[in-house]
Amino acid sequence: MFNFTEEQIKRYARHIILPEVGGKGQEKLLKSKVLVIGAGGLGSPALFYLVAAGVGKVGFVDYDTVDFSNLQRQILHTTDRVGEPKVESAKKTLKALNPDVELVAYNTLVNKENIMDLIKDYDIVLDGTDNFPTRFLINDACFFAGKPLVSAAMLRFEGQCTVFDFRDKENSPCYRCLFPEPPPPGLVPSCQEAGILGAIGGIMGCIQATEAIKVLLGIGEPLVGKLLVMDALSMDFRKVKLRKDPGCPLCGEKPQIKELIEYEHSCEARF
Amino acid sequence: MAVVVRVPTPLRRLTNGQGEIEVEAGTIREAIEKLEEQYPGFKERLLDENGEVRRFVNLYLNDEDIRFLKGVDTELKDGDTLSIVPAIAGGKLRV
Questions:
Q1: Nearest Cα to A175, choosing from A262, A249, A266, A256?
Q2: β-pair partners for A154
Q3: Does B39 fall in a domain?
Q4: Residue B75 maps to which CATH number?
């Protein structure tokens, strides 16, 4: 029937027992490939759960090194690894968790030259990045490649998550339907200026991992066409409609964006 | 019409930390004017110089994006909730 080892049957027993997953679903996960961009506050919990779940191949991209200021929320990394590349630190943690999973570390910045190559071997992409230029680049690249994208963002006590299913480009909205272009530099703060409660990354990263697994297994209703908005201070979760915008410059009726573009990065802020 | 405006955390320094503000208004534009009266600075953060909603802020009336209604001219009903959802990116500087 299934080609599970004894150890795998034990490891994934709590999945296999779920009717929505079962042996078939677990086998599907073991054959799936997920790319997580950003091994930080969102990427840490998302990667933990994707690897624990037995996703067959998990890639992760980050160019940065572990800093003391990351450890309050980026739980893949440890105090003794300050100064190490984040992807190396992530690989150590994830390898110890589940040796079943093929782990691929990309110690690089994402840019328009490398992104199509980075995503091409994966079934789904998770955006756990921290800036608008990269978010738009990932959105556009996943749209062109027809890959589902699970996007989440967080700031202070807030989180947002949605799924763009670019396997169905005709119907799925994209990030540009939500926000057509990046805010002008200086109008929206980053976590560096605004702060973030560490555990928010845990909530939102776990939601991303859950949505990715739902898409991979084809179960439930992923957040396609819906934006989840979370306010942890009132612990309020709301879903609002995210419609495909006919005027969207990327996926609308008269698209103006036909190739990847890179916006300038800026760290100024005052929203 | 009495409506509730949900304020995201980045804008709560304008509202002394309040996450929900009740205003009396007939349209969304009027609701924004009322907010501006009580909490100066609100309007310029939501609307551009032409009085349109800024591209990186979305307003939802209940669960519908107001761009798919009548924008800021959308009429309000008693008990409506207007949510302000700004674009956020989060994290560190670059990935």
A1: A249
A2: A159
A3: yes
A4: 3.10.20.30
CA-based nearest residue in chain A for residue B7: A231
Whether B94 is in a domain gets the answer no
Query: Are the beta carbons of A59 and A33 closer than 8 angstroms?
Result: yes
Q: Which residues of A touch B87 (CB under 8 A)?
A: 132, 153, 178-179, 182-183, 188
pLDDT at A73: 97
pLDDT band at B55 (very low <50, low <70, confident <90, very high): confident
Apex CA A23: angle with CA A19 and CA A28, to 5°?
Answer: 105
Domain around B7: 2-86
Helix runs in B39-87, H state only: 42-46
Say if the Cβ atoms of B92 and A130 lie within 8 Å.
Answer: yes
- A112: Cβ–Cβ under 8 A, 6 or more apart, which residues? A137, A141, A260, A261, A262
pLDDT per position as a tens digit, A85-109: 999 999 999 999 999 999 999 999 9
Q: Which pLDDT belongs to residue A153?
A: 95
Q: Is B19 part of a structural domain of the chain?
A: yes
Total structural domains within chain B: 1
Residue A57, pLDDT > 90, answer yes
Structural domain includes residue B70:
yes
